[in-house]
Structures are given as C-alpha cells and as structure tokens.
Amino acid sequence: MGSTLISLDKVNKRFDSHHVLQNISMQLNQGEITTLIGPNGAGKSTLVRIILGLLTADSGSVQRGANLSIGYMPQKLHIDPTLPISTCRFLQLADTSHQACHQALDSVGIGHLAATPIQKLSGGEIQRALLARAILRQPNLLVLDEPAQGVDINGQNALYKMIADLSKSLNCGVLMVSHDLHMVMSATDQVVCLNHHICCHGRPEQVTQNPAYIDIFGQTAIYAHNHDHQHSLHGEVLDTDGVHQHGEGCDHD
Amino acid sequence: MTDFLLYALFGGLGVALVAGPLGCFVVWRRMAYFGDTVAHSALLGVALGVLLEINLSIAVTAVPLVIALGLVFLEQRGFLSLDTLLGILSHSALAAGLVVISLLPDVRVDLMSLLFGDLLSVTVNDLWVIYTVAAAVLLLLGTLWKKLVNITVDPELAAVEGTNVVLVRTALMLITALVIAIAMKIVGVLLITALLIIPAATARRFTHTPEKMALAASIIAMVTVVMGLALSWYTDAPAGPAVVLCAALLFTLSLGLRQKK
Q: Could B146 and A93 be called an inter-chain contact, meaning their C-beta atoms sit closer than 8 Å?
C-alpha cells in the first residue's frame, strides 16, 4: 500500500434538512483503486465533490496529502455547439503544452481525433478525451465519476482496462464511481458501498462473471461484504430481523 | 462629412470592437437574457440618477453593475435556475425604474433615445469614455482569456484544476454589464443584446477556434456599424436600429456559407 493521498474522518453534509452524508470515514491511497457504489441519490456525487474540493463538509475533517494533485473525469461534458473548440484545444485548457496533449490523446487511443471539434466525438470518444485530460498533468489521484456512462459494452471493457493500465503506469490512486462492478472488480482493491452512510466496504471477491448469476443475485451479491441491514426507499436503515448489527463505519441507531 | 457623423462612427466602432469577443461569451454561455436584464436595469439607473441628482452616466453604469453582482451572488446560492433569476431581476429593475420615473412629474426622460440609442449625439467626452472602457475591457479579456474559455467549457473541471471560478465569472459579468451600459448609447436598451449576439452568431459560421470567432465577431460588428450609419445617413432611419438591421442582414447572408465544423 502506498502513502495516503486523502483521508476523510466523520464527514457530514446536509442539504437543508436532508442528511446526505453521515459520518463518512475513508482513505484513498497511492496505487490503490477504490470503487464507490450505491443506489441513485445515495450521496456518491456529493462525496466525490467533497473529495475534489468543490464542496465543503459541514463537519468532520478532510486531510489532503501535501503533494496531492487530482485528475478529474466528470460524468458528462456539455459544451454549447456555438463554441468552436477542437479536442486538442480542449485538453490544452488544462494548461499544458501542445505536445503533452497529443501524447495524452495517443495514450487513450484517440490521437487521430486531435483536430476534430469536441462536439463531434461519439460517447466513447468523449469519455476517452475526458480521461486524457484527467491524466494530462500526471496526477497522483484520479477521480472518475461513472467513467463508462453512455459507452457500449465492448467500449466499457476497453475503457476500464485502459483506466487500470494508466493508473498503474502513473502509480496513482483511483477513486471511481461505477455501477459496472462485474467489469471493474478484478482491478479494484477496495469497494465502498454508500447509502448516506458507509454500509460496508472491503475487497471484491473473485466470482463468476456469468450474467445469469448477476441476474439472479444482483450485483451486490458478487463482492465480499457483510450487508447487515436493509434500506427503505429514502435510504433509512430498516431493521429486518429485529437484531441489527452495525457494519464498520456505521454510527446510526 | 460633419463632425457628429465622425463621432458617431468612432463611437460605434469602439463599442463594436469589444462587443465582438464579449458577445461570443454571451452566446457560448447562453446569457442572451443577461444582456436584457442589465439593459432594463439601466432604466432604473436613469430614474435614480434624476431623483438623487447624480451624474446620469454614473447612475446608468452603477445600477447594472450592482445587478450583475446580485446575479452572481444569487447564482452561487443555486436554489433557482439562472433564467428564473434573470427574469426576477430584470423585471423588478424595469418596474422599479418605471415607478420612480412616474414619481418625477417635472422631469422628461428622453425615452426614445434610451430605448433606441442616440448614436448621432455622441460627443468627444463620450468617445473618451467609450475608448477608456474598451481598452480596459480588452486588457482584462486578454489577461483572463484562457480562464474564461476554461470556465465556459466546464466550470467544475476548471475548479479542480485550480481556477478560481467565482472570481473569473464575476469579472465576466461585470465587464459585460459595463460594456452594455456604454453600448446603450449606440443601440439603446431594446436592441443591445442584438449587437452582442448577432455578430458572434455570424462569426461562428466560418471559424473553428474561440479566438478566431472572437476576432471575426469584432470585425463583423464594426462592418455592421459602418453599414448601419450609412443606411441611417441616406434614409433618415434611426441609427441604432439601422445598425442592428445590418447585423441581421449579414447573418442572413452567412447562412448561405457552409458552417465550419
């Protein structure tokens, strides 16, 4: 395990009366891939935004390593079609040289699209361009918010392999929000399951990738964890059997 | 050629010069309604200027700047969408302006020149103001250009990479408000947005980088001013609307070009 890049201790965040993040404690380490999963509205994006420094926590502490530099790959890119901008120029906005941009585009396999307007790229190509911009400044932490959204199955496999390879060659830490656990788990070191609080976390287990298996048991059945409670639609913890054992990191009653 | 026509020409060219690049940001960031909001608030500036007996130029500039700052503040809180906020600010300022004017029975505000501009009444003093503001705006735009494009493309990426998004956005809002305030003299409250967005939209037809689009928008806006003044000179049409009409004409012609990708 490498050095700690960022560590969160009992982080809380509320939006009005909605307690979105409850006592989140976690660490991201150099050379380690962490995958964040959880249902829609579980607070995944809020947690990512706090880690990125785009939001501040209401309470708790966020410790950043002294030499932390973050490469961020957002979920989507909305650029108005009236803004004429090539893919290469889009990368250069991150304040780097022409040459570095071409290298980054080559390393994600879209070097030939450097002069193409970014609005003309396909879904998969845009994700690659975003990935290229994220690695451009040699970050030691990559934050990827649903990197394979809108990419077809073959493209998803290729993209996840690329992310694993790039993070290895950069020797950086990775925080990835992903629903495609059946694809990312072989490369993931740590899975964090979030539903306002951290339900469970641990190493994913090497199990079958048979789609039928996933169909029957659902995605949450394919990695090792002790999911000891149920959630209501609002994310509140329901006591199913009357005896509720809390997982690590749970502070609720 | 008479002096007033020369003043009008140089005044119009100065405003067109800065309207080009700023208009590009208005188009890219979909802020067309922002121009209207700032322009409407200028009416409140006129009313307050008369009421409080302060210099009208200062009042007409100060009120839009305050409105722009208010907008940045409200947008930052993020509980209402931008077009709703603009609608609230725009019409509240317009209504306040109209009410205050009605409370001043002895004062005749030249509504026509306010609404349609009065290019032919530009004075040497106006020229000083226009070119000082234009120089300052161009200097700021040049300094902040890369950051401005960056926050326009994706503000969150820019923020993660270390750009102070709020500061840059505030700067853009303030210079836009400032340019609108001085450009009102040229085309008036009603048509100000047109001078910003039509040359930029025309320039988009044949450019493929942000810089070239900004430069082309400037040139097109300046050509438009010359054409509009000529039209006004020969037909006695009001100069402001004539300028906007020529801009629309050039845009229509540009539709015949194949758009650069």
A: yes
Of the candidates B149, B154, B261, the beta carbon closest to that of A117 is on B261
pTM for the structure as a whole: 0.83
Average pLDDT over residues B57-76: 85
Given CB atoms, is A51 within the 8 Å cutoff of chain B?
no
Q: List A238's β-bridge partners, or say none.
A: A230
Q: Do the Cβ atoms of B156 and A74 come closer than 8 Å?
A: yes
Q: What's the mean per-residue pLDDT of chain A?
A: 79
Q: How many CB pairs (< 8 A) connect A and B?
A: 67
CATH numbers and ranges of domains, chain B:
3-254 (1.10.3470.10)
- List, in sequence order, the alpha helices (H) in chain A: 44-52, 87-92, 98-107, 123-135, 153-170, 181-184, 211-217
Domains and CATH numbers, chain A: 1-69+139-253 (3.40.50.300), 78-137 (no CATH)
Q: Is B157 on the interface with A (CB under 8 A)?
A: yes
Is the pLDDT assigned to residue B48 strictly greater than 70?
Answer: yes
Residue A150: is its pLDDT beyond 90? no
Q: Is the pLDDT of residue B176 over 60?
A: yes
